[in-house]
From TrEMBL:
Belongs to the cytidine and deoxycytidylate deaminase family. It comes from Candidatus Nitrosocosmicus arcticus. InterPro entries: APOBEC/CMP_deaminase_Zn-bd, CMP_dCMP_dom, Cyt/Deoxycyt_deaminase, Cyt_deam_tetra, Cytidine_deaminase-like. It catalyses: cytidine + H2O + H(+) = uridine + NH4(+). GO terms for biological process: nucleobase-containing small molecule metabolic process; pyrimidine-containing compound metabolic process. This is cytidine deaminase. Residues 1-121 form the CMP/dCMP-type deaminase domain.
Amino acid sequence: MNFLIEAATKSLKKAYNPYSGLSVGCALKTSSGKIYDGVNIENSVFGLTMCAERVAVFKAVSEGNVDIEEIAVVASTGKPIYPCGACRQVLFEFNPKTKIHLSDEKILTLLEILPFAFSKDVFE
């Protein structure tokens, strides 16, 4: 099994999901080789819920690691789960070529699933 999928799967138990019951775990690797995990964190005000992917990204960035190379996403259902649109956009900010590992061993790139992202180029 892919080491990122393993790390994401281990993080599932830390998810806070009292409303949906769906646990989502994530693990990302930066260019320095450091691994960060994340889980979904639900809130009774659903708009304030945070996805596992953004939790992991924000942990990495808060420690100065902004060069995200790969990310794995898993769900408690065992079915492959893709990053939502917001997470795709956040990941795009740091590396449009991020590799995304799914639980069915499929590997995609961020550009494949978000081909027309809003980018910092619009500010130039």
